[in-house]
Amino acid sequence: MDTGLAGKQVLVMGLGRFGGGVDVVQYASRAGAQVVVTDKTTPEKLGDSLAQLRGLPDVEYHLGRHEPDDFTAADVVIANPAVPPDNEYLQIARRAGRRVTSQMGLFFQSCPAPIIGITGANGKSTTTTLTAHLLERARPPASPRPYEKVWLSGNIGDRPLLTILDQIGPRDLVVLEISSFQVEQLAEVGKAPRVALLTNLTPNHLDRYGTFEAYCAAKEGLFQYQTLDARAPAISIFNAEDEIACTWLRKYQSQRGRQCLQFSADDVSDEIRAVYALPGRANRSNLAAATALARCFGVSDQSIRDCLGDFKALSHRLELVGDTHGVRWYNDSKATTPEGTMVALSAFEGPKILIAGGYDKHTPFDELGKRIAREAKAAILLGQTARQIAGAMEAVPAEERRAQVRFASSLAEAVGLAHLLAAPGDVVLLSPACASYDMFENYQQRGRQFAELVRQIG
User: Fold this and answer.
1) Number of domains making up the chain
2) Furthest CA-CA distance within the chain
3) Are 96 and 288 in contact (CB under 8 A)?
4) What CATH number does residue 424 fall under?
5) What is the pLDDT of residues 79-136, one digit of tens each?
């Protein structure tokens, strides 16, 4: 496979504390490049990532800083998704005429198989995993299916993109969750998947984008850069219940070489719903989205019903982690937006005790505050945004407020308070509506700690 990196000076910008750039370094080294890794984080904090790269030839590390000279000396700069496109060092590289790309860009450049790309504000991880599950397990009744192996990767899972690239064949299918940051990086190289789906759009990452409109514009690149070919049309799939998605449908549906489709939670038949265990309308929307994608590749509804029964909820997404003394405890740590938490609240009937709050991404909490105040039995708030969420709840007239508010300085304290407040029949829901970076390394660590604290209750 010709990667275009052999003999080149390659600068990897952003190794990451959790190995986000490890596969990029390995890929470039195997391709015969001379690799320099630059990261503002110190070597002490990058120990796990550095350990995975021990022994690789022709790799230098410039850690704890970025140096402009590294960006002008490189032939190719490969940027971590967390690096904004307008980063000053990437601008230095561009002005020097250097090629700027990314992990996702390299993958799209070299992947021999058709790619299904899924993006959105909420539900994209479940939709992506469910799509791969349906495609992998589907067994057409007569003719062989039109693809061989199914690969799941992207902004999800434990198989980084570039580590699986040399195993993918032209008759395989690749299903990717693609974040807004990664969509921007694909736009940088003018790439997009042949089949693209948008789950929904609600305000997110406003600490990076500034406005909801800018965030939406970043997401739209997944459709703007699809290759239009009348012989093999691009497929663009939109949520019929999302206002912006409907606008994009109208915008793109008349283009030659593109097929536009819609899905809705109401599309899910009673027969399919009966074997799908995940709660709430939002999960039905995820199922409708995955079903729409599976049908594009010849999967029948009967096959979908047959393989749904063994699909399990993803970790940290409305995951039941305990049932103690008649109280059910759910880990929804992946809910890092207010809309995600509102989805979680609507998934359960009966009394709900919500644990929420965390890192401030500058998203508004007005609607979430109203929902918590009116629908929850109690809200236990923590992290940077605790007072903001409480303030949004206080905007609800006192006579309409059901939820009592408590504050906690740690997740352990929050779980202890929830245990004291909960009665048989209640649901305790960790659904933070915020990222985790003020108190945890990531949402996974937050969810694992919650599950362990629940186990300790017994």
Assistant:
1) 3
2) 71
3) no
4) 3.90.190.20
5) 998 899 899 999 999 999 999 999 999 999 999 999 999 999 988 989 999 999 999 9
